[in-house]
Write a structure and sequence with these properties.
- The chain is of the alpha/beta class and about 210 residues long.
- The strands form two sheets. It has a four-stranded mixed β-sheet with strand order 3-4-5-6, with helices on both faces. It has a two-stranded antiparallel ribbon with strand order 1-2.
Length: about 210
């Protein structure tokens, strides 16, 4: 297998590859990861990818600001001929590229790994959101829960006026490891201890 090792572990994990994706766009690209509430895949991989990209993005923005201030200083001192030069400006090829990707992590309720079958409405909503069509979703259409790492939660980057329910890492732990707080008060609670055991058994069998 060229992609996976034993136990379905990636040989080159996305958490190491996605933060290094390059683009010429000033806004950078978006990457959306969608997990089922009872998914055997580890949602923490998505959160760690988001954290890594966020930290790289903060550093990229810092470098961009340094470049802007350096060009302004050169202009004010009549050294326009040095603008764009690498000498003393801190400009590197990496600085000239677009920012690292923005990562979005979505959780689909009442779903395992085949979330498109277990809860097709929230899965479809997640795809529509990822493609930029969230504004076209009916208010009555169920939406997935969005999760962010603690670093993003403390910033303003996730506050975009979205109608999505956004939770931090503690909320993600509650959601993916049982969903008790999320299911409380709902008419139907489909998650049970038997379901948990079945999912874990399947995963253990794949690792064996």
């Amino acid at each position: 297998n060229e992609i996976l090792t034993a136990g379905a572990f990636a040989k080159i994990p996305l958490v190491d590859r996605i933060p290094n994706l390059e683009t010429d766009s000033e806004e950078g690209m978006e990457v959306h990861m969608v997990y089922g509430e009872r998914d055997w895949m580890d949602w923490r991989g998505g959160i760690e990818t988001q954290r890594s990209c966020f930290e790289k993005r903060v550093e990229w923005e810092r470098c961009q600001e340094q470049m802007k201030q350096e060009k302004k200083r050169q202009s004010e001192t009549r050294l326009d001929r040095l603008v764009g030069s690498d000498s003393g400006s801190g400009v590197t090829p990496a600085n000239k590229k677009g920012p690292p990707p923005r990562i979005f992590v979505h959780g689909v309720k009442d779903a395992s790994h085949l979330l498109m079958l277990d809860n097709y409405e929230e899965f479809n909503a997640a795809l529509i959101v990822a493609s930029g069509g969230e504004g076209n979703l009916p208010d009555t259409m169920p939406r997935p829960v969005e999760f962010v790492c603690d670093e993003v939660a403390r910033s303003d980057s996730h506050q975009s006026g979205s109608k999505r329910n956004v939770c931090g890492e503690e909320g993600a732990s509650d959601f993916f490891r049982g969903g008790i707080k999320f299911n409380k008060g709902r008419k139907q609670v489909t998650r049970t201890d038997d379901a948990d055991s079945l999912e874990e058994k399947k995963f253990d069998e794949q690792l064996a």
